[in-house]
# Entry
Amino acid sequence: MKRILTKLFFIALIFLFTNTTYALKVRDLQNPQSIIIDPITGIYYISGYSDSTGFIWQVNPNGKRTTFIEGGKKGVELNSPKGLAIFSDQLYVADGKSIRRFDKTTGASLGIIDLLGINGNNLQRLAFSNDGQLFITDEPRNSIYKIDIHNAFKVSILIKSAKLSNPKGIVFDVARNQLIVSSKNHILSVSMDGKIIPIIKRTFQALSGVCWGKQGNLLVSDQGAGKIYRIRNFSLVEIVQGNIIDPADISFDYTGNQILIPSTKGKLIFSLHLK
# Structure
């Protein structure tokens, strides 16, 4: 009887999740990695890739998808894009060992910032400070890089340390002038001089994205557990949603009060209204 009840519970849970109505849901994407929203236009940008090339898709506020940038077309090289960030009128894309810049309106290529000189390997996520410093995580190198976009895109290493333990997600903490980073199992703060401090004692299975929600709460995705967590006051951890297939680099839509979630193995992105 206990086995039957347990099985029925999970069937009901799956039914509930798969029949939820989402404000945004786009299917049939190839390995979607990251999603961001342009707060000015309300347009969503999504990164992903196939075995042979990379893509940046645009989704307008009505849910219509178009292929905005495609590797191998119009002279664009794009291989395996992951993290995305917008600063001013430019879209920044982490692509392997480089950061690629595009016009956020036309998709025109504006240049490449090569990180080979500092041994950049597998760039993951991006975060801008308010004054235009770009920070990038490199998972296998256990590193965070810094690019000064106001100084000829000068590249430097903020920190390289095993304590970062496979960093992926990254977001800038304006109030404390620090970075918040999701390593494989922990949420960390990283100061501007490279000091690493775990924010909470709890461990996770395999973290991916991190972003700010409303009221100064952090939102994190755990690909290993298939869950989205909310962290209040850098201490209280709540499950916002479970039973998600491979949630990757999340972001937050403040206007719609919704979490934007790429499901890499699910080949889709969807939004989740935050209560």
User: Anything to note?
Assistant: The chain has one domain: 2-273. DSSP finds one helix and 24 strands in the chain.
